[in-house]
Structure formats: structure tokens, C-alpha cells
Amino acid sequence: MDRAFYKQILGFAVIIVVIYIIMVFLNYIFQSMAMYRLMKSRKIKAAFLAWIPITYCYALGSIYDSIKRENGEKTYFRFAILLIHIVFLVLQSNVLIKLILKLINLIQYNLNSEVLPLMRDYISNSSVNFLPGLLASTQTVMCFVCIYAVFKTYASNRPSYFVVSLIFTLIPIIPFIPGIYLLKASKNPPVFQAKLSFA
Q: Which of 57, 67, 62, 34 lies closest to 149, judged by CA?
């Protein structure tokens, strides 16, 4: 295969990646709007943290803690999620920087069969490693617990909201769908429950 073919493949891949990044960005906007609105309505301090990617999990945990307090329970999800997120980013940053530098070097000179081994090296050295994988899984589960509490409180009559959000989070074909449903739920008044149950 000649170099022109590889350039066509690269061009097509870039278009797909750009479209996907746009959809992910839209999801970020929708979710941040929802989290900001929920934090404001619940009188949680520093609602602007919902717009900062690194502290988004903290904002989500703050809303969960607020909901649990209304039900007579005291939790500290906001601190636990934030700590897990920071440790995960630190562990992953070194490997990710190396990958980016190698990809830039390949693009500058020639796109060849080194790309696939490079990607395999990145996967084997990062997300598959035990500790980062464990942290990412734990953070994901905790975020799902928080989001479930939000939907349970603000969209208890729409159980499909959480189900659809869960599906499109685990299988992110259209990644902005969860953000849309969370934004729709945030517009509803909260439903107080004597005890928030996950049954």
C-alpha cells in the first residue's frame, strides 16, 4: 500500500475523531449545565466547579451528598471521587504524554505500521494496568451511583432516563445522550424521599 492510501485513511480517521470529540464536548456542556443548575438549586457552594473537568466529579459527589443529607445520611462521596480522579490522572499522564510525542514524531515523518504497535504499547502500559484500571472502574461506579441518585430524586417518574444514560455511557455511540437526559432531569423539582433506596 502506498503513502497516499495511508493519508486517506488518516484523513478519514481524523474526521471521525473530530466528530466524536464534538459530541463529547456537547455532552460536557449539557452535563455541566445540569450540574451547575442542580448545585445552585440545592444551595451548594462553588457551583462553578461543575464547569471544570477535573472537579466535575467533585460537583457530582456534592449533589449526591446533599441528596443523602436530606434523607438523614451523611456521606463524603465528593472527596472520595475527587481523590480517585486526581490519582488516576497522575498515573496516566506520563504514559499519555509519551504516546502523544511518539504520534507527533510519526506524523512528521511517515505514517506506517508502527502506529498499531504504538497503540498496543499504550494500552498495555496504561488502562490495562491494575491500579489505573481499578481506579477508573471505581470512579465510574461511584459516578453511576451519584447519577442514579439524581435521577431518583429529580426524575423518579422517568426510570428510562437513567437506563438510557447508563447504556450510552457504557456504549458511547452517541456520547451526548447522557448529558441531555441529565439536563432534562435537572429542570424538574426534587422529590423528597424518606430514604433513598437503590432497590
A: 67
Q: Is residue 191 in some structural domain?
A: no
**Alpha carbon separation from 37 to 32, 49, 76, 150, 181 (Å, rounded):** 8, 12, 21, 12, 14
Residue type at 52 in one-letter notation: I
CA 147 to CA 71: how far, in whole Å?
16
Nearest to 147 by CA among 166, 170, 172: 166
- Structural domain including 128 reads 3-186
Question: What's the pLDDT at 2?
Answer: 64
Residue 124 or residue 48, greater confidence: 48
CA within 13 Å, CB half, 123: 6
Would 63 be classed as within a structural domain?
Answer: yes
Give me the number of domains the chain comprises.
Answer: 1
Locate the DSSP E strands across 101-170. none
| Domain presence at residue 83 | yes
Question: What tens digit of pLDDT does each residue of 12-60 get?
Answer: 888 888 898 898 899 899 999 999 999 999 999 889 999 998 888 899 9
Question: Are the CB atoms for 81 and 60 separated by under 8 Å?
Answer: yes
Which is more confidently placed, 140 or 36? 36
Cell of 26: 456537547
